[in-house]
Backbone:
């Protein structure tokens, strides 16, 4: 796609976000399955439905523009999803895995917030008031998801820092010490 105007860039960035959201729709159920803390599982599962709504909003914007949403692959989201998949393959304590999943999810949320903030601003500059409102709604949801992950992290990261009793007993046995 040739970028000769702000509108061209706007459409290109919207296509990137469309690709990103669809990649995330495939990754979220895997993240929910890998999570062990029930509130984290629920957060990932709930974000699937929210993401479906975000994709629907993007389709609405593309329909208004008379443009297909397809044709671009978001390489950044591909990389973020790949990093998350690599994490899920690690042999990690459940709390540590959950902490890592939160970190991976927050990287995704921050990427999305940056993208939606830009396209919302482009929509405003281009006089696309309806699209700007839809994009702001998604931006608000992404911010709320990030805040929810931060709240979950405040508990889960502490749990990950403290080894469970079995790990303490095993490390004491390996070093010949008793607890």
Residues:
């Amino acid at each position: 796609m040739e970028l000769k105007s702000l509108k061209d860039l706007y459409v290109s960035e919207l296509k990137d976000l469309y690709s990103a959201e669809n990649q995330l729709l495939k990754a979220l159920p895997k993240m929910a399955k890998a999570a062990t803390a029930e509130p984290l599982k629920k957060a990932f599962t709930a974000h699937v439905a929210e993401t479906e709504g975000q994709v629907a909003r993007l389709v609405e914007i593309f329909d208004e523009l008379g443009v297909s949403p397809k044709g671009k692959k978001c390489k950044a989201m591909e990389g973020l999803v790949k990093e998350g998949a690599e994490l899920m393959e690690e042999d990690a304590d459940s709390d540590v895995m959950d902490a890592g999943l939160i970190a991976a999810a927050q990287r995704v949320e921050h990427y999305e917030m940056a993208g939606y903030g830009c396209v919302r601003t482009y929509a405003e500059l281009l006089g696309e008031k309806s699209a700007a409102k839809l994009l702001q709604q998604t931006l608000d949801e992404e911010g709320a998801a990030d805040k929810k992950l931060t709240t979950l992290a405040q508990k889960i990261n502490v749990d990950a820092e403290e080894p469970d009793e079995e790990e303490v007993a095993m490390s004491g046995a390996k070093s010949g010490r008793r607890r």
